[in-house]
Amino acid sequence: MVELPLNRFACFAVVAVAAALLAMPAVLPPYPLIELCYALVLAIACLGLNLLYGTTGLLSLGHAAFFGIGAYSGGFLFHIFDVQSLEAYLLTGVLAAGALAAALGAFCVCVTRIHFTILTLAFGMIVHALFFAGIVFKLGGDYGKGMFYVGYGGIVLPRFAILGTVPEPEQFFAAFYYVILAAFAATLAILWRISRSPFGLALRGIRDNDVRAEFIGIRLKRLRWRAFVVSGLITGLAGCLYAQLDRQVTPQQLHWMFSATLVTAIILGGTREFLGPVVGAFGLVALQEFSRPMTIYDGLVLGVVLILVILALPGGVTGTIASLARRGRGIPRTDSWQRNRDWG
User: Fold this and answer.
1) What is the 8-class DSSP label of residue 51?
2) Disulfide engineering: 93 pairs with which of 54, 81, 154, 240, CB 3.0-4.6 Å?
3) Domain count of the chain?
């Protein structure tokens, strides 16, 4: 991928987008603001997953496990210990997702490509089954069984206190929007730093040619495991935010189909450009909103639109824009560019 210099126009664009996002609660009605919150949360999850897929070259179909475990861990903290602090809820969920990613990643990184994908899918479905069947709840004795039977595996969350204050119902989404925006900005900053670090360069080397990378001394399993853990932490953060936004956690958030949704979004946006997952997340939320009035045909409409977009833009939205920009600057298509296009 050709690196474009960060010029004044790019800096102005970043400042303008940041200012626009900060002003959204003041200009948007409640429903569009909630949809924007969902798009930002989905973008965080897609950014986390793309650290594995787009940067490291490993496709995971089990990231819904980290998304859901983050939400459930914070939810259990509230229901068992009556902790109503948003900060404690987020910290607990992120740490639980990171611990799960560290454990599962130790097994998954031992294999690559299709076997890695199958392993993540298998582990993800095991985690889903543990919650769906109530096994995790039953570890809490009669109280846990009661939680499971009351919510059929789901749990309801209150509005948590933000910096010690519980927002009023009419002010909650505006206040929580800024929490989501801060998490989104922090995720972008961390992943941008990683992408420019020796660690990020090594991951891209592993993605492009793991045999050559190992030959020059890069420790494949160790770096893949680190990328897996960071990816799980970020996805777990998104799960915590999603559950507080939705005010509930359900086993559906652990299902592999949600992992497939994340993969669809990042392919739609483009996996090889830094902002590709963000564009894909916003695009997918927009497509879902567009198809929702179709009632029983919403899945059909969404599927057809996604097929057309992916066929017309095989490199994703951002990948296609980047290739057109390169063509306009007279940069020839290299073999590396073609590989990027083929992978999305």
Assistant:
1) I
2) 240
3) 1
On whether the pTM is more than 0.85, the answer is yes
Closest CA to 167 of 154, 184, 179: 179
241: containing domain: 28-254
64 with 255: CB under 8 angstroms?
yes
Q: Let me know: does 109 contact 244? Beta carbons within 8 Å.
A: no
Rg over alpha carbons for the chain, rounded to the nearest Å, is: 20
Residue in this structure with the two tokens 């690559």, named with its chain if needed: 112
Q: What is the mean pLDDT of each run of 10 residues along the chain (344 residues)?
A: 56 89 94 96 98 96 97 93 94 97 96 93 96 92 88 92 91 95 97 96 94 92 97 98 95 94 94 94 91 78 81 89 83 49 42
Has residue 143 been placed in a domain?
A: yes
> Are the CB atoms for 269 and 287 separated by under 8 Å?
no
* Cα 44 off chain centre by: 5
Is 328 domain-assigned?
A: no
